[in-house]
Amino acid sequence: MENITAKVKSVELVNKDVYQIALQADDLTFHAGQYLMIVLPTGEQVPYSIGSAPHELPSLTLYILVSDAESLAHKVVEHIKSNSQISIKAAGGDCHLANGVLSTTPDHILLIAGGTGFAQIKSLYSSLIEQDYQGKVSFYWGVRSYEDIFAEGWLEEAKEHAAFSINIVVNEKSEEWQGRTGWLYDAVIQDVEDLSHCTAFICGSVNMVYGTLDQLEQQGLQESNCFSDVFAYAPRPKK
User: Fold this and answer.
1) What are the pLDDT digits (tens) for 209-225?
2) Which value, to the nearest 10 degrees, does the dihedral of the CA atoms of residues 28, 155, 108, 36 take?
3) Which pTM was predicted?
């Protein structure tokens, strides 16, 4: 990973606790699905998936969830807010489109995100559109409540690409949300009965990734056809 100076363009709160960060990095190259490290003055390096696609460079987008004022994420956002430029290291991760997956011509690419795992999956989805990928692609995004949805403008624009599909699944039912509810993996299984010839990218917490994989394997998904950054730092628990 290379040390790069990025200009801070904007910091915007896009729902109750997620910040959208816009950066400009003139010297960066990356593959859709990779991440960068924000380097704090303390020397701490904090990883975040790049939420924009390579063809959007030099613009970069990050989505940072700040759960409370004592969190490391809050420290990161405050650092970005108070500086016109920041130090980053990029790019890292092998859960990306240049890892050979497209050459295997999967029947169906499943892009599955929980919460702010949306960032990585958004980058993959946008890049596949830009590459004029001709295969079947389905984006599944799971959030806890309707209030957790963000990036509505991008979602509406992305839905216009008729060859691909976007599916938002809200875990908690409410009067405000008339779309799909329940567990994310249930939505995938309802839509795709046989997953044996599918490839999946899964982004979220460790428990979310392995819990989803456990359920989808029962429908035929092969672990060798599944990609996640979680695999690199949290080995799969033994069953």
Assistant:
1) 999 999 999 999 999 99
2) 20
3) 0.93
